[in-house]
Every structure is written in C-alpha cells, then in structure tokens.
C-alpha cells in the first residue's frame, strides 16, 4: 500500500538545512496496524502528515498503491487525500459551529455525495457508535471521549482505506482512551489500515508492529 524510499524532510535557512526526517525507508501493507513512537521532536507527526499528503518531502519517493505521490500536483494530492485517507487528531479538530450530525456530513459534502445517500450514511454511523441522541449537540456539549468518537466517525464515514491517528487518546482519561483504542482496533479488524503516532507503550501494543523514530531516523 505504502512505500517510502529515502524520504527526507528539511527546512532551509540561507545555507543551513535543519533535518526533521532523514533517509526514511518504510513499507506498509494494506490491513496493517502500525504504531510510530519516539521522543518529542523525533519527526513522528511530520512523518504522519507526509503519509497523509498534508506535507510534502524535501527528497525521496513516496508510492501509494504504486502511484508516485512525490510527483503529484497539489490538486491530485488533495483528491487522493479526500478519497483514501481519514485523519484523527489529538485535539479532535471538529468544527465548533456545526452539530455532531453536520460534522459527520462535511466529508460527504466534499465528496459531492447526493443528499439521500448522505442522510443514510450519517444515520448509519450515528447508530453504529450509539450517537443518535447526540446528533444535534455541538462539540463543546460533548465529553472529550465523545468528541474523539465523533472525530473517528467523521474520519471513517467516507470509507477511507487508511486512517492516520495523531496521539488519538492524548487528551482523554484512561477509560475513554481504552474505548478509542478498541474502536480503532475493531476498524482494523474490519480491514482498514491504521497508522498511529503515540507516546503510550500500551496504545502501541494495539498495533501489529512498532516503528521507532529518533532525531528523524528510523531506529533499527
């Protein structure tokens, strides 16, 4: 599904290059659950954003289902991102002015899904996550766990092949965090590829394997 070859990311300031990622070689198969770990500043979130096509490498090659991501236009990247990838962030990234229902509907509007199908898919996902009673509430009326569950539901409503989760339980207490990790694990069991960035060894264990980053390098 994903092949990274000699990926680098650096920021240039006159004659100085500050490296965030160095010589990243990585293969991720469809259906895997991969955890990325490492200390703060090791490049974890940069790597995740690059995998999600929200950031571009400074060098190297990125293939997604054999498509050369590193050679694509911004428009093609955006289309690929919307069609295949769901993102879950530590801080939820829900739209405060929209209800739960409207937040869930937003990705389908981007994909130009017809009204009747939109209603059906939102109803189905509200039911799946026992959120029907919360559909008219705004994010600030939900607990942290409910907000993150809404964010996951929004990430999967467009049926992505890949979910990228950046510290998905970082703002939650342990009970809520366990519920979110169990939800991601179930999605993986159903066939969705998941890549998460986490500081938690416990959460990392939900994955099939752990990739450790340090100072922008993958540790062997």
Order of helices and strands: EEEHEEHEHHHEHEHEE
Cα shape: globular
Helix % is: 25-40%
Q: Quickly count the helices.
A: 7
Radius of gyration using CA atoms only? 18 Å
Classified by CATH, the class is: Alpha Beta
Please give the order of strands in the largest beta sheet: 6-7-8-3-9-10
Most strands sheet? 6 strands, mixed
Q: What's the CATH topology name?
A: Rossmann fold
At CATH level 2, the architecture is 3-Layer(aba) Sandwich
State the end-to-end distance.
22 Å
Protein structure class: alpha/beta
What proportion strand? Answer: 25-35%
Arithmetic mean pLDDT: 93
Unreliable stretches, pLDDT < 50, 5 or more residues?
Answer: none
Task: Write down the domain tally.
Answer: 1
Counted beta strands: 10
How would you explain this protein's 3D organization?
- With 220 residues, this protein is of the alpha/beta class.
- It has one domain (2-213): P-loop containing nucleotide triphosphate hydrolases (Rossmann fold, 3-Layer(aba) Sandwich).
- 35% of the residues lie in helices and 27% in strands.
- It has helices at residues 44-51, 74-84, 100-110, 115-128, 144-156, 174-189, 201-204; strands at residues 2-13, 16-28, 33-37, 59-64, 67-68, 85-88, 162-166, 193-197, 209-214, 217-218.
- The strands form two sheets. The protein has a six-stranded mixed beta sheet with strand order 6-7-8-3-9-10, sandwiched between helices. A four-stranded antiparallel beta sheet has the order 2-1-4-5, covered by helices on one side.
- β7, α6 and β8 form a beta-alpha-beta unit.
- α3 (100-110) crosses α4.
């Amino acid at each position: 599904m994903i092949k990274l070859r000699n990926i680098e990311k650096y920021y240039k300031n006159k004659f100085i290059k500050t490296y965030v990622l160095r010589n990243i070689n990585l293969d991720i198969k469809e259906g895997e659950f991969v955890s990325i770990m490492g200390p703060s500043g090791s490049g974890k979130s940069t790597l995740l954003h690059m995998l999600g096509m929200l950031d571009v490498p400074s060098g190297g090659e990125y293939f997604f289902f054999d498509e050369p991501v590193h050679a694509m236009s911004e428009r093609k990247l955006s289309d690929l991102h919307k069609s295949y990838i769901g993102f879950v962030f530590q801080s939820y990234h829900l739209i405060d002015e929209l209800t739960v229902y409207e937040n869930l509907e937003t990705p389908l509007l981007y994909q130009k899904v017809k009204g009747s199908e939109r209603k059906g898919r939102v109803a189905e996902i509200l039911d799946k996550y026992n959120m029907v009673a919360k559909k008219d509430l705004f994010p600030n009326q939900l607990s942290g766990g409910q907000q993150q569950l809404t964010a996951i539901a929004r990430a999967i409503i467009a049926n992505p092949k890949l979910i990228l989760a950046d510290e998905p339980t970082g703002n939650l207490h342990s009970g809520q965090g366990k519920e979110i990790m169990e939800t991601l694990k179930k999605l993986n069991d159903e066939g969705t590829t998941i890549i998460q960035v986490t500081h938690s060894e416990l959460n990392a264990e939900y994955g099939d394997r752990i990739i450790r980053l340090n100072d922008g390098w993958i540790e062997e």
